[in-house]
Each structure stands twice: as structure tokens, then as C-alpha cells.
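hiii, so i know i said id send this last week but things got crazy w the move. better late than never?? heres the sequnce for the chain we talked about at the cafe, plus the structure i predicted for it. fair warning i was half asleep when i ran it
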Amino acid sequence: MDFTFSEEQQAAVEAAKAVFTPVAPDGVPSPALTAGAVADDFDRALWAKVADADLLSLLIAPEHGGAGLDAIALCLVLREASKVLARVPLLEHSAAAAAVGAYGGEELKQEILPGAGRGELVLTVASAGRTGHDAADLAVTARRDPDAADGGWLLDGTQTAVPWALNADRIIVPAHTPAGATVLALLPGPATDLPGRTLAEQFSTTGERLAELRLDGARVTPHDVIEDPAAWPLLHDLLATGTCALALGLGEGVLKMTSDYASKREQFGHPIATFQAVAVQAADRYIDLRAMEATLWQAAWRLSSGATGLLPVAGDVAVAKTWASDGVRRIVQTAQHLHGGFGADTEYPLHRYHAWAKHLELSLGPAAAHEEILGDLLAAHPLG
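okay and structure toks below
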């Protein structure tokens, strides 16, 4: 077995480090001190740098101007981005492009993928469902328009907490049909009027702008709908696995921050890092990180290789997200504890990491939701 990353994947990491390392996590107002959004838009200057480094086209095929890499490469880049709380829709954009590239029609690919790879077209995904705790593909219904000769679709329903929706150019919305299938509808962003569609501003714990997407007979053409039943599972698994990568990078950044602080902070004439109680807590969180990492790469490898296993790939994704949700919460809680009151200082970045960790913990469902998914898969696929 060879567990090393390929040259292409390692090159993506180096490019990501060059782009993200100079980023300051406190480049916008603190969410703890801001009543509304910390900014009206994502970091467009950073987005341009990410595009220039060819990091937006990782999962896009070469014939559409991309690198043709895999989920592992994307997760490696996402890990670097989250270490500095990079305010760009890299995960949603990349996962959406991958779904279009894998299952979209040829005209749709030509329309979306080249611009997405260059960062000229910003993509996002409605993946939180109606309340944030139910299945995203059941929150919106899709039915054929009986008055349309082209076989268009009418969408009805609500999706909450859609990331970057107020700044994106296209929004992918999963929707279920009367036959029980799931389709992906590509809606225009807010800059283009769409009758029957409204976007209401929301805010995440990170202080970033989200949107509640309400659809009341909104019409989309067949050209903008992906009907392949495999499209939504791929998109969902990519989003969930990418969220695990973000949680891992954030956890690594927080643990390093805590290690640096504990090595310098003295009590009774000694660095607190030398105290057994401190060292044991830090060691436990290091174990969390290693478990998060191992389960992440297992899920990313299954997605990238298409390898079969005792359970479908959704099982590995559920295990990874369970560890990511619980692990990142424990890491930031321990960091706050070991920092003492200094960790809550709004001039110190730890409180921002805590807010982002809570957002990632709950994104696409908390640990309990993924444990339930895993239980259902185990019941349907007995291992004995």
C-alpha cells in the first residue's frame, strides 16, 4: 500500500500554501462585535489569487480548462484554506463544478465550467434543507410545467442557510420529483431576476451572509436541470467530505495556536505546557485530529477511486463527518479552556475559530445525524 500523495496533489498543496499562508484570520470585523454581517461579500481579492493559482479548477476536466484532479486534492487545498479562515466559497464552488462536469449536459458544461475554473462564475449549493436539520433534497419539489412546450420545471419550497447565495452567479438546488427522484436545478444568482424566487438575508455564527431561498413556482428550463440520479449523492458526499477537510485544517490551526500559547504562558515559574493536566488535554485533542485525518482520507479516497467496500461510500463519509463534528468541537473547547480568559479576547483570533468550528460542526448535519445515517446503512448492508 502507498499512502503518499501524488505529485499533482502535493503541487496543489504547495500552491494553496502560497496563496493562503499570508491571509490574516482577523481581516474582517469580529462576529462577536458585529450585529449584522462582517462583510457584504466574500474576499474577492483572495478569490482572484485562488483562481490565478488554478485552485478553482481542480475537479474540472482538462477539456474544460481544469486540472482533472480528485477529491483528495480538493481536501488538501481546503485544509490549508481553513487554517486561516479563508473567506471564499471554494468548497461549494468546486463541488458544484464537479457535479456539473460529471452529470451535466454538454451545453451546460460549456456554459459553466470554463468560467468557473477561471473564477469568473461563482457557484454555490443549497444543501441545508428547509430547517438545517432535514434532507436538502426533500426541501424543494420539482414538477414539469404543464403549460411549457419545452418541458421546463417548476420549483416550490424553501432552502435555508444557503452559503454565499447573495453573491453567487449560479445556485444549485436539489429537488425531488413526484416520482421520488432527485434533480439538480441551476438557478441564476440574485443579479438575475427569476420570478417566484426570493432570497432573504441570514447570518451564520461566523458572521458571514447566508440566505433563505424561497421558491414559489420558479421556472427553470430543461437545459438548467441535471436529471441523473447519481448527481445529488456525488454533490452531497463532496460537500460533506470537504467540510471534514475544513474542520481538520481549522483544528490543526487551533491546536498549533494552543501549543504556542501553552509553551510561553508561565504559572509558578514554569510554562503551563509542562503541567500534566495541560499536556494530557492537548494529547487527547491530538488524537482527535489524527482520527479526523484518517477518516477524512478514507472518505476522500473512496470518492476519488470509486473503490468498493463493505458499505457504500456514504458510510465512509458519515464516519468522517461524525469524527469531524465531534472532534473540531472538542478541539476548540479545549483550546478556550487552556487559553483561559485570553481565548475570549476579541483582539485574539481564537474566538473566530470557535465560531467557525461551530458552523462546520453543524454544516450538513451534526455528528448525531451522521451516526443515524451510518446506522441505517449498517442495517441495510449487514457486515456479518
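btw The longest strand covers residues 209-220. thought thatd interest u
miss u guys!!
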